[in-house]
Amino acid sequence: MLHLRVISPPDRTDELVRILETDPGVTHLTVARGVALMPAGDLVQADVAREAANKVLADVKALGVVEHGGITLGPVTTVLSDAADRAVRNAPGDPSDAVVWDQLLKETREESSLNATFVAFLTIACLLAAIGVATDSPVTIVGAMVVGPEFGPLAALSVALVRRNWRLARRSVIALAVAFPIALLITLGATIVWERLGWITTARVIDAHSVDFIYEVGPFSLVVALLAGAAGMLSLVTAKSAALIGVFISVTTVPAAGYAVVAATIGQWHRAFESVGQLAVNLVGIVIAGVLVLELRPKSGDETGPLGRFKRAIGMRTVLER
């Protein structure tokens, strides 16, 4: 379930309470009048079944609470209550299938911000990838995959395309388009220094066959990108962080970028171009998979998506949702 906390203008509290009382997916409703100071108003709290959250948020926002008060929504880790169980049963749909769009938009918007932290993480990941290529170290390559923060903007771009949120799409593209060149330039400078010191040689890179998967583009390059993108988006909408780690170590976006820099500095241009191709395949595949996952999942608690229609058609609703 999700915990809803609303600071409501006093003249709209009664209508807000009526909306929450009549929704079958809402329970544990409490009202504290006049306790909110900034902004001033009443405090209304409730627990909401995840699959009912989109409708509840839309109804609450229609009262103008966002402009004159505030809405906070967060997960509830443990709920021991028959009333909560009834709310989950009465809400249409399945909690695991529900996409809370306001929550997802907020999370992906934060992950797609172009800031010093994002650039730093991407730069460190590219440096680790370059070191992994130079030392023929798959372990270091995996470390670069985990550190790389590029999935955030890619997921945000998928959400933006589905929701037609062009501002978020532009924000995501800018984050990638600016951060990657900065990270690659820094990695290029470091690689040149390593080459001058004799740490990187053409022979060492050519003979590093254990990391050939980084630049070799094949049919499974797209397949892995699609599967990883699908798993990553599912992990976001269902809050399965462990699955997201698996996504990070499945795709070769950052390693491909690091390999391209190393290959270019030692004149291995064909490998550099192949690495860029691998990078492009991974970026595009992740976004496509994210869009497909969001399009196939129910858009609200009423099971309007293809998955909901499929479940109704084969009679699984009672088994899966009760």
TrEMBL record:
It holds the Pfam family DUF389. InterPro entries: DUF389. This is DUF389 domain-containing protein. The lineage of its organism: Bacteria, Bacillati, Actinomycetota, Actinomycetes, Mycobacteriales. Keywords: Membrane, Transmembrane, Transmembrane helix. It comes from the Bacteria. It comes from Nocardia lasii. The chain crosses the membrane at residues 114-135, 141-162, 174-194, 214-237, 244-269, 275-294.
